[in-house]
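pls design
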């Protein structure tokens, strides 16, 4: 580690990074081919990073179903699971595990970017039970030689007293709980003058919470990770986006598909983890929405950046008793149009009846053939969705860049 960067991989050239990622990806695939369940997802030889699309996407909902059939890990693990360090169970339910190698979850990089150093005393307010969050940051703190109080996410009265007693300098946990602790300290007139830094994850950082933390002179950074994947991306400077971790490859695709979106367009985050060979995870659909940012970080780190969490990609809804999914909308568009188009199904309610309208961006929005095209779309909607609906053709760039394929605007009341 250097004073500024966790390691030199953060400042390597794009060519160096891609070459290294390709070597690791090939190794990951070779290991995975020893497992029949993983091998079945690989539909061709991987000779470049662009060949990732030859691998079938695995969605979290599919993994949950597979695990239910073959407990606990759907036989995706390469090593016997009694050889791993921990087994976890997250809501879903879904089983996760970790190995014994150093920095398995890779959060040390995020904490280093947030200026956590040897001598810091950390209040770790993530749970140490059932899910891996607490141990993810425990592992990272140990690598950085920080001292940890394993606090968990309860008993705010005792926590602020402990923070004062042991002179806690850093907080790790969800954003809202940090505010609760700071407000509790004010209420009890406890001075937390040593608390100066925080790494926030596990939930959205709302603007009012961020502003409150600034009034308390807390230097806070967010990071993005999951119990399945570990660290995905992290902040190294505020208002600079999230830098993608060096040991993952991120793709951003149209929700419900494997099709990459245009640069800057919001889509679903697909992650391949390159350093965990005991339980290979490749092309895993997180269900989260984000978008790539142009250019590089102002901190000197050279990996690509994402904007951060921008919503959920699972937009499945029920209309007149029928489930409607983004993948079905994609199927309609690809059947009707030869070129790539963008569409959004708007679900509304009028006179106590659900109505659907498929809005499509296309250069043919003003074509003399538009009525014929609309009839074809409506017929395809009936065929694929088993629902009658309407359609509207609009000019390109008319729809908001928010990743929505299904926009359910029905008012169901409180």
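designed seq:
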């Amino acid at each position: 580690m250097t004073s500024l960067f966790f390691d030199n991989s953060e400042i390597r050239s794009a060519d160096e990074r891609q070459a290294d990622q390709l070597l690791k990806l090939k190794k990951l695939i070779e290991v995975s081919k020893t497992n029949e369940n993983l091998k079945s997802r690989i539909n061709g030889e991987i000779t470049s990073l662009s060949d990732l699309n030859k691998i079938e996407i695995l969605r979290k909902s599919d993994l949950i179903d597979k695990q239910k059939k073959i407990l606990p890990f759907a036989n995706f693990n390469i090593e016997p699971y009694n050889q791993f360090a921990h087994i976890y169970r997250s809501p879903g339910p879904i089983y996760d595990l970790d190995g014994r190698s150093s920095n398995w979850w890779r959060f040390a990089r995020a904490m280093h970017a947030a200026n956590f150093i040897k001598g810091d005393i950390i209040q770790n307010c993530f749970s140490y039970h059932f899910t891996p969050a607490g141990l993810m940051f425990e592992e990272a703190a140990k690598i950085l030689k920080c001292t940890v109080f394993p606090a968990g996410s309860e008993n705010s009265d005792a926590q602020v007293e402990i923070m004062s007693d042991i002179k806690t300098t850093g907080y790790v946990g969800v954003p809202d709980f940090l505010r609760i602790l700071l407000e509790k300290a004010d209420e009890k007139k406890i001075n937390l003058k040593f608390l100066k830094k925080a790494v926030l994850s596990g939930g959205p950082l709302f603007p009012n919470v961020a502003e409150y933390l600034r009034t308390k002179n807390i230097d806070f950074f967010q990071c993005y990770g999951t119990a399945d994947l570990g660290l995905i991306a992290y902040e190294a400077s505020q208002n600079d986006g999230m830098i993608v971790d060096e040991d993952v490859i991120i793709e951003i695709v149209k929700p419900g598909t494997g099709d990459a979106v245009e640069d800057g367009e919001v889509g679903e985050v697909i992650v391949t983890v390159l350093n965990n060979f005991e339980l290979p995870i490749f092309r895993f659909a997180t269900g989260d929405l984000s978008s790539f940012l142009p250019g590089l970080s102002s901190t000197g780190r050279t990996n690509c950046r994402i904007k951060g969490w921008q919503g959920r990609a699972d937009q499945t809804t029920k209309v007149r008793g029928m489930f409607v999914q983004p993948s079905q909308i994609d199927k309609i568009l690809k059947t009707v149009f030869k070129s790539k188009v963008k569409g959004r199904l708007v679900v509304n309610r009028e006179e106590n009846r659900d109505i659907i309208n498929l809005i499509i961006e296309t250069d043919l929005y003003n074509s003399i053939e538009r009525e014929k095209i609309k009839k074809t779309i409506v017929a395809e909607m009936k065929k694929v969705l088993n629902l009658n609906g309407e359609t509207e053709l609009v000019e390109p760039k008319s729809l908001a860049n928010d990743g929505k394929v299904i926009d359910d605007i029905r008012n169901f009341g409180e």
